[in-house]
Amino acid sequence: MSGLLGDAHAIALLLFAGFLSNEVWRVLGLVIGGGVDESSEFLIWVRAVAAAILAGVIAQILISPPGALATVPDVVRYGAVVVGVAVFLATRKSVFAGVVAGEIVVLAGKWWLG
Predict the structure, then answer these.
(1) Is 62:75 a contact under the CB 8 Å cutoff?
(2) Neighbour tally for 110: CB within 10 Å
């Protein structure tokens, strides 16, 4: 019975620390940024910075993969980037679709190649 209580405590902590603490800032951003012009120079800059950060993280993961990702062969990791970029371009520059496609390739490649 104590194992079940411990799991519930961990899940509640994750919900509080991971979800609720970030949700406050998301709602605040929605309220404050609701009237901002999407084609403004500032938002173009913000999107460029976000894309650069994502590119930096991907490059770091490719060059020196952390943890379990180090066991994934290089060809699978680089192939995932190629597929991710292709899906990104094919879906009218959807970062979400590109990242998900890359993750699927990594998971499938690790499962298939062992």
Answers:
(1) no
(2) 16
Distance CA 105, CA 99 (A): 10
The answer to whether 101 and 58 have CB atoms below 8 angstroms apart is no
CA separation (Å) from 87 to 32, 83, 84? Answer: 33, 6, 5
pLDDT digit string (tens) for the chain, length 114 residues:
455 556 777 777 777 787 778 888 888 888 887 778 888 898 899 889 998 998 899 899 889 998 888 888 999 999 999 999 999 999 998 989 999 999 999 999 988 886
Beta-carbon contacts of 15 under 8 Å, excluding residues fewer than 6 positions away, are none
If we measure between CA atoms, which residue out of 99, 69, 71 comes closest to residue 85? 99
Residue type, 61: I
The pTM for the full model equals 0.59
